[in-house]
Write the structure tokens for this entry.
Amino acid sequence: MARKVLIIGGGTGATMLAKTLNKRTFEVTVLTASLEHMFQPALLYVAFENSRFNVVRDERSLLSRHVRLVHDRVTHIDLRKQEVTTANAAHYRYDDLVIGTGVRTDPGQIPGLTEINAQYGDYHSTLAWAHKLWANLEKFQGGTIVLGQASPICKCPPSPVEGILLIDELLTKRGIRDKTKLIFFSPYPRPYPAKPMNEIVEPIMRERGVEIMTFFDLDRIDPETKTLYSIEGDEVQYDLPIIIPPFIGADISYEPGDVLDQSRLLKTDKQTLRVMGFDNVYAIGDGTNLPTSKSGVGAHLEAKVVASMLAGKPAAFGGRTHCPVDLAYGKGTFVIGSYDAPVVKLQPSRLNHLMKMMFGRIYWLSLRGLLEPMFDVYFKLTEPKPPKATQRPTAGGETLRP
Amino acid sequence: MSDVTTSHTLVDSRGSACPGPITDLAMAYRRSKVGDVLELWATDSGVKPDVQAWAAKTGNRIVSIDDEPDKIVVVLEIVRR
């Protein structure tokens, strides 16, 4: 008899996993709150280049016919009773559960940010907000643009740096760069948190005249005086604020409730991807508390690990990151690292930028699983190596996060 | 008598290469209050200069930084928020 696998979520990880599971072995149900599958990295180009890229597709068009798709919002998951409850008061039972419910932006955590967000938009929330940000940039004629992340946790860690560099290019092309002060703030000691990558991006930012404020962890915003204040006691004024809101896990209650951390992220084993304390429950994608980047590549690789585990083949997630970074003016690099290997210092090139663009173009095709042999080879060839002299045992066991 | 209770929070950043342990520390600081103790575990050796720069900027106190065989353990006391 086929095992009942219930996948909650309709993003990259959930869709890839549903496509991967063998239909003779598993009876797969995907339960998603939205039928709109969004290619989230494209919001960067909608907001800063007015891209007309195909950002959204119907989830129904992305799944195989043998996968049962249910459009409903999960409200409660009882992991002990193995039962999922939805907004429509439906109940679902499972043999194995995979949770890929992602994160959402939560501007309400920062006083003043909800108002700023509604007025200026952003490039991490929705397509409408990305269009709104582009509209504000389009009418901008000079002044001070301040860009940064409102919380230390940021989906797609390269995206703040990408945003400020694309604005520099945009305003230079429009001939108003000399009328604009660009200020970048970060809660970290440097613009990019991982030091090797910062050694690439910080000189580029300085060369392009971006002012950098480090250790600026946003505390509150006063929209009246157009001022941002940090927890550390600094402040900065803006004409156009581009603030990446804090992120929080899905609005789902759990039994037991302590499987969630304070950001509503699922406490997930770093290697097996099992949710703490439950052998038949896995978490993939942005909604985990794994100490690695929240990115589509991560969700992709995590889905492969869970597919193996469900098929009874031992597998372990290595914490691999492979995040493209657009450095503007047609150049790019990648943030490549893992649990065992520090981030690689990969020099910018046009080829890297072209590869980022190509990954965007083949995203919808890759969801079908047809490109997996190519990705397997690519990820193997680009696997970061732990430095021998400093190699440490891989951290294992339960992950405790703040 | 104060009704404010302080806490000792373990922040496990072992294995974090990107974005790195400083992300977890900054998140824990955001949720802390004066008197709390944060214990950060990391395997990324870059954590030492980062924590020192962070403590200098925020005015908080480093209680200890210890190299253990499988991790670096940093203990911080929050004295300023």
Q: What stands out?
A: The radius of gyration of chain A is 21 Å. Residues 226 and 237 of chain A are 6 Å apart (CA to CA).
